[in-house]
Design brief:
Length: 523
């Protein structure tokens, strides 16, 4: 379900912005669905402003590999001109060149990074929490081996996990702090963007059987260093080292740290370092949400669980991996059964592991359709770590399909505050869309659906929500364009099977189904 972070281009011209990946044309802040073929044509024209583009090139861009009549191109160009006519004179920005093709002759085109723009748009300066707050940035990997990047990330993950167990400390989720990977950043600016007082940064070097870690804690408001330390340990001391760093950071923020809170930082870890390493390697593929990458991760996770059968996080990741395969790769019963089996193992072995409980709760709720147990798992995860953004985000998904609108909205918003730049944001936006839809706030539902699409343009369910909400506000042409995108991403999609797979609440299924029928999606 989680997209990888890549640079996405956005084209600005006149009052318009084109987001090609999401398939959305914006007039100011107003989004419009114009269909993927129209988007592909406009993208080619905007990439070569003022230059002729042949009909063959345009047809290949919009109907790659297909033999189509030229009249199809004419129809799409007419639709584009109608859309551009929303700005005075816009219908004249695409010029027809007799027997040659077309060219864009409108306002100057500027090309930028959509990710940067989206960040700027959705991240006004956040108010600092009432309690001390911290973000841990990705540590630099100084080992010179890019294959060890996952190990440096694993150290940071574990430090974040330890810090998040301190109840009076507000901790930004890993998924948002890692948005700053590879960037030269001003720590004061990072503090403002994430809404935190303290920033922990550092570096890792793994060589042979030793690990060297440098860490420094900075007050983001003043830029002053609060604490810094250098560690040189044997690899088999890695868990003790991670705990020591977390305890030292908390002690620097709150010198009167109580011994009970020191004990809270320390927690049960896997018995096998090899199993720990395999789970670290699997994490990114599980987080991708894609069935093919999940299959790759599951091979590693099965090896990890053979080494340590009681490894709760290994089971939690496996539950999510099989869920990804079940929901996105054919709804095969064997995948659903495996997801539930691993989820239950994570619950049995992970009562002090918030992330394992989160993934287990999600699978139990979505795959086993046992929402009571799912919500118990989410609440237990938040009792262990109140800063677990993913518990709120995935919990909001379960609440939304259960038809619990207000809780879905509340949990989605809380998850986004704990992780403002989370790659799982699309799931929270989807929950907001369903919540507003159920509450009759249809314009807000459309807006949240568009945010879900922009957050993850490759996820078909985002376009399902968009099609339904657009149809509800009477924008049927755009709803049909969104429905077409669903079938491009998932040709075998049938909304009845989707509703059955997630055990959609009856009231929601009826309301959504009526709108999806109107958009042309098959049941």
């Amino acid at each position: 379900m989680v997209p990888t972070s890549v640079m996405a281009e956005i084209y600005k011209f006149g009052l318009f912005r084109l987001d090609p990946d999401a398939g959305i044309l914006f007039l100011g802040a107003e989004p419009k669905m114009i269909g993927q073929r129209a988007v592909a044509l406009l993208r080619v024209l905007l990439a070569k402003p003022g230059m002729p583009v042949s009909k063959d090139v345009l047809i290949d861009a919009a109907w790659s590999g297909l033999a189509v009549e030229e009249s199809n191109l004419t129809v799409q160009m007419a639709a584009l001109r109608r859309a551009l006519a929303a700005q005075a004179g816009g219908e004249n920005w695409i010029e027809t060149l007799s027997r040659r093709g077309y060219r864009y002759v409108g306002p100057v085109v500027a090309v930028g990074d959509l990710n940067a723009e989206a960040t700027a748009q959705k991240s006004p300066e956040l108010i600092l929490p009432d309690t001390p707050s911290i973000a841990v940035l990705p540590f630099l990997n100084l080992g010179g081996d890019s294959e060890q990047e996952y190990f440096a990330d694993g150290i940071v993950d574990d430090i974040i996990t330890g810090l998040s167990r301190i109840k009076w400390l507000f901790v930004i989720a890993r998924n948002s702090s890692f948005a700053f990977r590879g960037r030269s950043v001003n720590l004061k600016h990072v503090g403002r963007e994430l809404g935190v007082r303290y920033i922990l940064e550092g570096s890792v070097r793994k060589a042979d059987d030793r690990v060297r870690v440098n860490g420094q804690l900075v007050d983001a408001a003043t830029g002053l260093h609060v604490w810094a330390e250098r560690y040189d340990r044997k690899f088999d001391d890695i868990f003790a080292l991670q705990d020591e760093i977390a305890i030292s950071v908390v002690g620097a923020i709150e010198p009167s740290l109580r011994q009970a809170e020191v004990a809270r930082v320390k927690r049960k870890r896997p018995d096998s370092l090899d199993a720990y390493d395999l789970v670290l390697q699997a994490q990114d593929d599980i987080y991708s949400g894609m069935p093919e990458r999940s299959a790759k991760a599951l091979v590693l996770l099965e090896r990890a669980l053979a080494l340590d059968p009681d490894y709760a996080l290994g089971h939690g990741f496996a539950a999510m991996g099989y869920h990804n395969r079940f929901l996105r790769a054919g709804l095969h019963e064997a995948d659903r059964t495996a997801a539930i089996r691993h989820a239950r193992a994570a619950l049995a072995n992970g009562q002090d592991d918030a992330l394992a409980l989160t993934f287990a709760g999600f699978s139990i709720g979505m795959d086993a359709h046992d929402r009571t147990s799912a919500f118990t798992a989410f609440q237990t995860a938040l009792a262990v770590s109140s800063s677990t953004a993913l518990a709120y985000i995935l919990g909001s998904v379960v609440y939304s399909w259960a038809g619990q609108a207000e809780r879905a909205i509340e949990w989605g918003e809380q998850g986004m505050r704990l992780s403002p730049f989370d790659p799982w944001a699309f799931a929270a936006f989807g929950s907001l869309a369903l919540g507003h839809f159920l509450r009759g706030r249809y314009d807000e539902a459309v807006h949240a659906s568009y945010q879900a699409v922009q957050s993850n343009p490759g996820h078909s369910i985002n376009y399902v929500l968009l099609a339904a909400t657009l149809a509800k506000v009477g924008r049927l042409e755009e709803a049909r364009a969104a429905a077409s995108r669903v079938l491009e991403l998932q040709p075998a999609f049938r909304y009845g099977r989707q509703f059955s797979g997630v055990d959609c609440a009856p009231e929601l299924a009826v309301a959504l189904g009526e709108m999806l029928d109107a958009s042309g999606l098959p049941k």
